Fold:
Amino acid sequence: MSMLDDIGGETRLRDLVEAFYDLIETLPEGSNLRRLHARGHGIDHARIEQFDFLSGFLGGRPYYKEKHGHMDVKEIHAHVPIRQADAENWLKCMRQALSEEGHEGVHVEKLNAAFKRVATILINDVPDWEDDFGLRK
Structure:
């Protein structure tokens, strides 16, 4: 049984991703994450790509790999300035989304541990982005 099966399959994963990005878009903890996504393809695009990535990451169909040829999370985020606070805020929003969606138990603990490992390896020293006036957005 895969981690995707543990959370209830693709439909429940899609609900989780939607709840997660709803939190990113509304909570103060999501402010810098919103800024980072705005410099990329935006939150709507992230909702799709996150679902595609997590499906494969959790042992389901590897939609992201089918589209992009890999699942190298470090490569995916190599250009994004991700700090400790960003990783912690991402994890906080994901934990809240899991809770709000009714996920609980040992499989959620395993999932949170996996997310924490990935979030930690994404922390980097890529220079922060600036706007046209040289100010941090």
